[in-house]
What does this fold into?
Amino acid sequence: AVLVSKVVTQRDVHKEDARALLEMAKQQGILDKTIFLFGGPRVDHKTALELGFDAGFGPGTKPSDVANYIYYRLMERMGRVLPPQKTAHGTPDATVPGTGEKLGETL
It folds into this structure.
């Protein structure tokens, strides 16, 4: 997993940088093999998804929230889908892929 933490900049340079990183990962053939996470003081899950990341983590996110997300995505990729667990994700607009459940409620 790769966690990109970026300070929000004027003129959306942080978004351009994020897109460029994902494009380089695609060119190197690792985009689909890696979990890409985007975080920062004004980053939310919705923006991260729009940019092409697997998830976004903003203010209030605990390291355990990120680790929990990575664990569940890895289990999912290995074909071991686990039941959702309670978590304090920190971004109320985040949803669990395929279920529509809010990550702030379950993961």
Notes: The first helix runs from residue 13 to 27. The chain has three helices and three strands.
